[in-house]
Amino acid sequence: MIGTKPYDFMVKYTPQRDWIEGHGILIAFALFFGGIAGGLYLVSLYFDSLLGMFIAWILAMVTGLTDMAHLSKPTRFWRMMLKPRTSWISRGFIFIWLFLGVAAIQLAITYWTDGTAIETVFKVLGGIMAFGVAIYSGFVVGYVGAIKLWNSAIVPILFVVAGVAGGLALLMVISVGESFLSADVAIALRAVLIGYAVCLAIYLWVATYESTVARDSAMRILKGNIAPVFWLLVVLLGIIVPIIMLFTADSTAVFIISGILIIIGGVALRYSILKAGVYSPLVPTD
Fold first, then answer.
1. Which pLDDT score is estimated for 7?
2. Which SS3 state, helix, strand or coil, does residue 6 take?
3. CA distance linking residue 105 with residue 122, whole number of Å
4. Is 80 inside any structural domain?
């Protein structure tokens, strides 16, 4: 790591940079695209939006391509799928490609023969794969034991809830031409945003009590150098302002602005969590 002395790993909380700086920023975007792709597909199934399902399929493709772009040798991407028994990255990559295949068939069936039994079967399979795409990024992060802020059972839950919130926000934006659908999505989004805020608060609260290393990371988010991004983009613009807007107004402008703010907040959330991750020192501090 740039600026890190060899002995820092022995005694200091050393920030990880591999997944957030330079080429590594692609990981943050892959985690976001995966979450919102899975979330958008699931909510589009519920609201029966073919356009939403199609955009979710495109976002899942972007997720796979972003994961591949992060590799030092992208042409060897197929090796990512060879260790599903031990690697969540491998499982996630498999989920993405299974989802792309199943969802492509489902989209074709729905477009040409809406309402058939085979369509229902592929929608169920697509929903299972979409959930896998949405949650795998949380397990990828949560499986890293050396970074205590990430190594939490709450992370997969938080990432799924954030993905569903982002999916609802995007569906609300793309369906503004159908005011009745946008209004229904907005009602669901209000509840999900409140749940999202609660999950985020619980996650950071638990982190402050888990270990001194996790507490140090949490403080970087709440009071340190990451605080401006967290409080402004994640909390204020990504949660509070949209909640106020969705509860106090009902218009196309509100749907579009609040949806865009939620999506920006979702990206900022992944950035904040990845940026705040620090490695535990080799000399125990707890």
1. 45
2. coil
3. 7
4. yes
Which of 273, 26, 33, 279 has the alpha carbon at shortest distance from 158?
Answer: 273
Q: Domain containing 129 — which CATH number?
A: 1.20.1630.10
Please list the rounded mean pLDDT of every run of 10 residues in the chain (286 residues): 49 71 72 90 94 95 75 54 62 85 94 86 94 86 82 90 95 86 92 96 91 89 94 97 92 93 94 87 58
**Distance between CA atoms of residues 82 and 130, nearest Å:** 21
Per-residue pLDDT at 90: 74
Look at residue 86 and tell me if it is in a domain: yes
What is the count of structural domains for the chain? 1
Print the domain residue range for 20.
14-279
Q: Evaluate whether residue 4 is within a structural domain.
A: no
**Burial class of residue 56, CB neighbours in 10 A (0-12, 13-18, 19+):** buried
Between CA 89 and CA 5 the distance in angstroms is 29
pTM of the predicted model as reported, rounded to 2 decimal places: 0.87
118, two tokens: 């085979």
Phi, psi of 14 (to 5 degrees): -95, 120
Please report whether residue 178 resides in a domain.
yes
Both tokens of 262, joined, read: 């939620």
pLDDT at residue 50, as a whole number: 93
